[in-house]
Write a structure and sequence with these properties.
The chain has 2 domains: about 1-75; about 95-165, no CATH class. About 80% of the residues lie in helices and about 0% in strands. It is mostly helical. It is elongated.
Length: about 160
């Protein structure tokens, strides 16, 4: 959580600087860490030392921490999905991927699951492998900066192998 906040605070070439969001996540991480570590002290002082109340306090802090992590994830993922779409868009025009596969890859897990489940038997497995190979191609294209490297060519060949199988 702190790391995500730090990246937003400082900014990167891929993620613009968002100082307020970054500061909020860094402070939330420190606050939740402090609340978790001082649970016994808070439980003794404010909750009268009641063991069930201290456990309830820990549960509340844990739920807040999970909610904060989920929020960070939901704020970061749409931008990354846009990057996947931008990186793989030329592959659609080259015929390596279909538009349906690109839309599925740049959507959420529910859409990927629905895409795979729309088929049955061997076709379902083939779709699963094609999506995995397309993710690999996106990774290789991003690492290569869009250049044709042996790893990019291999990733394309894997995608083509699953298309013909």
């Amino acid at each position: 959580m702190f790391g995500a906040g730090l990246l937003w605070f400082l900014g990167t070439p891929a993620e613009p600087r968002r100082r307020l969001r970054g500061l909020a996540f860094m402070l939330a991480a420190m606050l939740l860490h402090g609340l978790w570590d001082s649970a016994i002290g808070i439980g003794t002082t404010l909750l009268g030392g009641s063991t069930p109340l201290v456990f309830g306090y820990w549960i509340v802090v844990a739920v807040l921490a999970v909610a904060t992590v989920v929020t960070a994830f939901r704020l970061a993922v749409p931008r990354e999905r846009g990057f996947v779409r931008a990186v793989l868009a030329p592959e659609v025009s080259a015929g390596v991927l279909t538009e349906e596969e690109l839309a599925t890859l740049s959507d959420d897990a529910k859409a990927r699951r629905a895409y795979r489940r729309a088929a049955h038997g061997y076709e379902r497995r083939r779709r699963h492998h094609r999506l995995a190979a397309a993710h690999e191609l996106a990774d290789e294209l991003a690492h290569a900066g869009g250049e044709e490297t042996s790893r990019v060519i291999h990733a394309r060949e894997e995608l083509a192998r699953f298309a013909s199988a």
